[in-house]
């Protein structure tokens, strides 16, 4: 287990103020919010008021503060009453508000329209919150997780989906633990992935599947260990497994999945080639997920009729992906029956779940400029950690992993501060652990340090390695704040290109500083409306790249060197 976390002021920094994380809970429906009715359980509104405000673990009783939420396509902002948890084991409090969809659904009725609505809600509110929890029915939860994992591109913040087997208002329920566990993950741990939290486990969303209709342990991710496990002591994150965006690009969403042109078919003993042909000849079909036996085997039919049906469809432009019906393991060309499929052009889906294969296919087919070749190529490549391309042994030190890790972090810190790019590259290349989100004694990560490094190349390199731009140091400062405070024009631009934005808690200080240097802070995202264009221009030049570090520096909490 690594030392990486968003912040941990309670441990090692008892004098630090208690920081609040902000989490948006998006309610889509599902059992978690359901109530009994003459026609069975149905979703009910008023979850925050009815289910959370009366529970001490979800409400510390402090005055409710309004949180801005962007509520619709017109970017209309509405203030929502918030609640705050008591201080967690990690010395934080989580302030959250529940945003309910207009129509609450049983998840068996959710489709691509619902996925797009969730993606848009996250996108519109991305800069206002540290993390997102999506409440959703369990029936199609694994599909939604998979779909969102592809739709949310260059995601830099945690998105945790959860639900429950039994409603929150039922006496013995799993809703309380599932929601609290999800809030803690979204409010503390920089896991920039779409995840599914259930029964004390955090799974990668696109690796998970529903394995039980009524057990509390309803989900599993058979081909990928949990990203985190909650015990009575704490939530232990397996940081080495966490995927991070490695592009210098802003967060974006792709919402128009091509779900109406993909299908899924399960092979069974005795299946007729004509049956498969009938599906493959469905009007407008572009992609098919074939659930095959074992390591990817299917009957080739008399005179290879089945293989011919598949090969003909592929020639017509249809993409066919082979996934296994087994819960664990991968499609691999071991048997002749499996090999004939791959010779016909069927793509090996390796160890992808059906849910991931189907939603990935719908995502890739809808990408601008998608061709059969591009979809085929990307289908067997991991784009969000949804499949294992090859297993790579991880070199580990069995003893004293933590001190070594801290030592490396310190050496790295010096190299960054000195602008020694070659040394930084060497350290990252040889360090067996992923340390870019680890924090030093003042909560600064390597990205915080690089935000004021004399070498812009170092910042570029570390961002390309997946370091997070959203982590805040013990003073609550993001790397972007430190770069702006140091007047580093290029650094600010690069951070902004990588999706960085100022946290709402640091905006008041930033606005104060912006009165003296509106140009530089304007680039960091603070617009002072009363400033004329000319004044902004003037400031911009004065604080430009050539003069970086020379200007007067007001320190309102930034603790970078
Ligand atoms: N039918 C419910 C749903 O998926 C089941 C659940 O939430 O557990 O919405």
CATH architecture of the largest domain: 3-Layer(aba) Sandwich
Note the total helix count: 18
Bound molecules: aspartic acid
Q: What is the CATH topology of the largest domain?
A: Rossmann fold
The largest beta-sheet arranges its strands as: 6-7-1-8-10-11-12-15-16
Overall strand count = 21
Protein name: asparaginase
Organism: Aspergillus sclerotialis
GO biological process, one term: aspartate family amino acid metabolic process
ANK repeats: 442-474, 475-507
Give the structure's gist in a few sentences.
The protein has 3 domains: 18-246, Rossmann fold (3-Layer(aba) Sandwich); 259-379, Rossmann fold (3-Layer(aba) Sandwich), CATH 3.40.50.40; 403-526, Ankyrin repeat-containing domain (Serine Threonine Protein Phosphatase 5, Tetratricopeptide repeat, Alpha Horseshoe), CATH 1.25.40.20. Helices cover 31% and strands 16% of the residues. It contains 18 helices and 21 strands.
């Amino acid at each position: 287990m690594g030392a990486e976390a968003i912040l941990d002021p309670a441990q090692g920094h008892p004098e630090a103020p208690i920081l609040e994380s902000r989490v948006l809970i998006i309610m889509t429906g599902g059992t978690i919010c359901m109530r009994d009715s003459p026609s069975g359980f149905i979703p009910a509104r008023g979850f925050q008021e009815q289910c959370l405000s009366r529970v001490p673990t979800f409400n510390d009783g402090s005055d409710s503060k309004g949180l801005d939420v962007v509520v619709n396509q017109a970017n209309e902002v509405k203030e929502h009453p918030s609640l705050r948890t008591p201080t967690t084991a990690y010395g934080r409090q989580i302030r959250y508000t529940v945003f309910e969809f207009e129509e609450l659904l049983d998840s068996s009725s959710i489709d691509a329209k619902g996925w797009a609505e969730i993606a848009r809600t996250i996108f519109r509110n991305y800069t206002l919150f540290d993390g997102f929890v999506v409440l959703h029915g369990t029936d199609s939860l694994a599909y939604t997780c998979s779909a969102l994992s592809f739709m949310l591109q260059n995601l830099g913040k945690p998105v945790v989906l959860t639900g429950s087997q039994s409603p929150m208002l039922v006496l013995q329920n799993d809703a309380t633990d599932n929601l609290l566990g999800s809030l803690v993950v979204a409010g503390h741990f920089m896991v920039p992935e779409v995840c599914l939290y259930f029964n004390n486990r955090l799974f990668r969303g696109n690796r998970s599947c529903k394995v039980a209709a009524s057990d509390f342990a309803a989900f599993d991710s058979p081909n990928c260990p949990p990203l985190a496990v909650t015990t009575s002591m704490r939530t232990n994150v397996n940081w080495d497994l966490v995927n991070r965006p490695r592009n210098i690009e802003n967060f974006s969403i792709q919402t128009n999945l091509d779900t109406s042109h993909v299908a899924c078919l399960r092979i069974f003993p005795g299946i007729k080639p004509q049956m498969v042909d009938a599906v493959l000849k469905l009007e407008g079909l572009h992609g098919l997920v074939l659930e095959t036996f074992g390591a990817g085997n299917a009957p080739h039919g008399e005179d290879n009729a089945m293989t011919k049906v598949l090969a003909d469809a592929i020639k017509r432009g249809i993409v066919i992906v082979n996934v296994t019906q087994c819960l664990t393991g991968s499609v691999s060309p071991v048997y002749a029956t499996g090999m004939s499929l791959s010779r016909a052009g069927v793509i090996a889906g390796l160890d992808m779940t059906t849910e991931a294969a189907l939603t990935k296919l719908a995502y890739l087919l809808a990408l601008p400029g998608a061709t059969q070749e591009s979809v085929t190529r990307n289908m067997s490549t991991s784009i969000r950690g949804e499949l294992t391309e090859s297993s790579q042994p991880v070199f580990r030190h069995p003893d004293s992993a933590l001190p070594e890790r801290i030592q490396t972090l310190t050496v790295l810190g010096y190299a960054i501060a000195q602008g020694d790019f070659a040394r930084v590259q060497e350290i990252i290349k040889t360090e067996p652990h992923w340390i870019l989100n680890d924090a030093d004694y003042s909560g600064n990560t390597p990205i915080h340090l690089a935000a004021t490094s004399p070498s812009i190349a170092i910042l570029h390199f570390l961002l390309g390695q997946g370091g997070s731009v959203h982590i805040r140091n013990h003073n609550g400062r993001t790397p972007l704040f430190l770069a702006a405070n140091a007047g580093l024009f290029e650094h600010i631009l690069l951070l902004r290109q990588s999706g960085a934005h100022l946290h709402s808690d640091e905006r008041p200080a930033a606005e104060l500083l912006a009165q003296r240097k509106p140009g530089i802070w304007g680039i960091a995202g603070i617009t002072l409306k009363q400033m004329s264009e000319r004044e902004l221009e003037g400031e911009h030049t004065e604080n430009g790249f050539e003069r970086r570090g020379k200007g007067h520096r007001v320190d309102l909490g930034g603790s970078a060197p």
